């Protein structure tokens, strides 16, 4: 595995076409597009990594996997009254479907859906409390107490968050938020600004590769059925309107973020995190996707066969 990752890191480092770093959140535009990291945590807990796998980056929408896990664990099937589970085929921040579907977002991984999920995990109107619980959950998953928020990214998002604010108020207008939209938005922006390295992220995602368990079968995070269902949602909805393309090229459940990270799951085998900040036109990491394509070709891990 180490030899495969070293080879991937070498190939990606030499790639001249790196995509465009996200610029609509000013703080993300400052990230060096030459960065690349990859980490693989196998089902037995062993880890291999290459490149900048120890450097923290903004996980952005990948955090939606963790908040959705919390919501599913706490609310069970009642979460489906708040959010759907179909691919959207629309950009991550689109508002059009929301009007047709009367404020019920199409799935938990587009922004509208993640805002509804953020509301669902809030137990009081205090964003700080909700964010504290989300962080605690992510630290538990990654077995790492050093994971935190990037305060500059959070501030930058809040200052340029008009589109997300529109989504939240629009959802609220249909009665699908239980807390005030500004408090829900604070929770949402803060969890998007969690900073993690590939090594931490791959470790945090391991419960999805091991049927809901962590620490080699000692702690259950969610049920086996729920883990399977989160993986299916990641496969169908984890890359916005590029989810079909990702399934076609990589063939693994995956969730991307505009910080250039991707968390991918090879069920029963491994949790994988990659990071390359340059994005394709849809907003998914260009070279991160290519790296996963190479990994799957070498390991035969596609869920669709060798
Ligand atoms: N916080 C980002 C936003 O809401 C997340 C986008 C993403 O990673 O897809 O715009």
Strand order of the largest sheet: 3-2-11-10-9
| CATH domain class of the largest domain | Alpha Beta
Distance between the termini: 17 Å
The helix/strand series, from N terminus to C terminus, equals HEEEEHHHHEHHHEHHEEHHEEEEH
User: How many separate domains make up the residues?
Assistant: 2
Strand content: 5-15%
Bound molecules: glutamic acid
As for the CATH topology of the largest domain, it is Beta-lactamase
Give the number of helices. 13
Shape label: globular
DSSP E strands, number: 12
Taking the sheet with the most strands, its summary is: 5 strands, antiparallel
- Structure classification: alpha+beta
Q: State the low-pLDDT regions, or none.
A: none
**Mean pLDDT across every amino acid position:** 96
């Amino acid at each position: 595995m180490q030899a495969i990752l070293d080879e991937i890191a070498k190939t990606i480092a030499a790639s001249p076409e790196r995509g465009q770093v996200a610029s609509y959140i000013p703080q993300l535009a400052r990230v060096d597009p030459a960065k690349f990291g990859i980490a693989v945590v196998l089902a037995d807990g062993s880890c291999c990594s290459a490149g900048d796998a120890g450097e923290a980056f903004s996980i952005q929408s990948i955090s939606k996997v963790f908040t959705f896990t919390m919501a599913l664990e706490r609310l069970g099937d009642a979460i489906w009254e708040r959010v759907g589970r179909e691919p959207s085929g629309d950009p991550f921040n689109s508002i059009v479907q929301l009007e047709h579907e009367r404020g019920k977002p199409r799935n938990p991984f587009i922004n509208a859906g993640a805002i509804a999920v953020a509301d669902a995990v809030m137990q009081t109107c205090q964003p700080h409390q909700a964010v504290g619980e989300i962080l605690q959950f992510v630290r538990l998953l990654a077995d790492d107490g050093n994971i935190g928020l990037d305060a500059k990214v959070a501030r930058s998002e809040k200052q340029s968050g008009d589109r997300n604010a529109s989504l939240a108020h629009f959802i609220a207008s249909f009665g699908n938020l239980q807390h005030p939209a500004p408090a829900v938005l604070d929770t949402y922006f803060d969890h998007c600004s969690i900073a993690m390295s590939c090594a931490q992220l791959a470790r945090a995602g391991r419960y999805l590769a091991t049927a809901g368990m962590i620490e080699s079968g000692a702690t259950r995070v969610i049920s086996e059925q729920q883990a399977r269902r989160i993986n299916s949602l990641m496969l169908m909805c984890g890359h916005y309107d590029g989810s079909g393309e990702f399934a076609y090229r990589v063939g693994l459940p995956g969730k991307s973020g505009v910080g250039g990270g991707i968390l991918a799951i090879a069920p029963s085998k491994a949790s994988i995190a990659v990071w390359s900040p340059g994005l394709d036109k849809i907003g998914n990491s260009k070279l991160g996707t290519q790296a996963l394509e190479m990994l799957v070709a070498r390991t035969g891990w596609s869920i669709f066969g060798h």
